[in-house]
Amino acid sequence: MTRAVRVRFFATARVAAGRAALEWPVPDQGIPAREIVRSIAEAYPSLGRTLRACRFLRNGHYLDDLSERVRPGDEFAVHPPYGGG
Q1: In the CATH hierarchy, which top-level class contains the domain 2-79?
Q2: Residues in CB range of 18: below 8 A, 6 or more apart
Q3: CB within 10 Å: which end of the chain, N or C, has fewer?
């Protein structure tokens, strides 16, 4: 059975994706975060360059290792580098 992860895009990732969020299907046992990133890059080619510089969060916590599993019901956030001063 496949259910979904809520993917949220911020700043330039939101602009490149053309949306703030989407539901991404994942199997019940989850998948490594890197697989979500790869799949999103394939589905949204305009995000490819941006994703290489992003940090990712699962349920509000930064992922240090993209082999960590993301499971149905999780929130997966895409945060590009922020500028300003």
Answers
A1: alpha beta
A2: 44, 46
A3: C
